[in-house]
Amino acid sequence: MADVQLDTVDALMARYAAGILPAPARVLVEAHLEMQSINRPKVAEYEMVVGDILEHMEPVSLRLRDEALKAVFAAAPLAMAGTARAQPNAFFPKAIRDFAGLDAAEIPWKRKLPGFKEYSLGKIDGCDVSFFWLKPGRVIPAHTHEGYELSLVLDGAFNDTRGRFAKGDISVADESIDHRPVAEAECPCIGFAVSQAPVKLTGSWRQLLGDMIG
Description:
Low-confidence stretches: 1-5, 52-56, 75-89
CATH architecture: Sandwich
Oligomer: single chain
Helix content: 25-40%
Distance between the termini: 32 Å
CATH superfamily: Jelly Rolls
């Protein structure tokens, strides 16, 4: 994902339509499109544009065809967290259930901070992939990003300096964003995150200490 500019949701949708997103980011977009219809027409338009471009491109011969096919078939399958299940789920879209192999109730959460739990799927297709759970009112310490972070809200909502992100919304953050997300008070905020690099903590030590303690 290092060479893909993902600074807005529109850019994310365009790259999804073009088929150039890493696998976890593609799953995140598919889940968003399951949960919300607002961007479906836009993706359809992008796909038409991409199809038109491909239709008018000059054919290009594939050199070393046999070697290329051999490399494709020899590649290891994409690592997943488990075997996909088909049971209905309270708020996980099918795209994420199939990808993670887990229903919401089966996630083996690990405590990261008081009121902040996480379950990491590890490194997949060059991205760090995880689920997060924030208790109502929980503040995430102020931070910026050394790369791109995409967060899809699966349940609940959080707020930061950019506004409110509720169920089905995607937050796109990069090095230009310095924020301190806060889960809303009504219910826990649960999300699916795909990131390029670790976060970089910002803010004063006093604020950081208070946010870490929760």
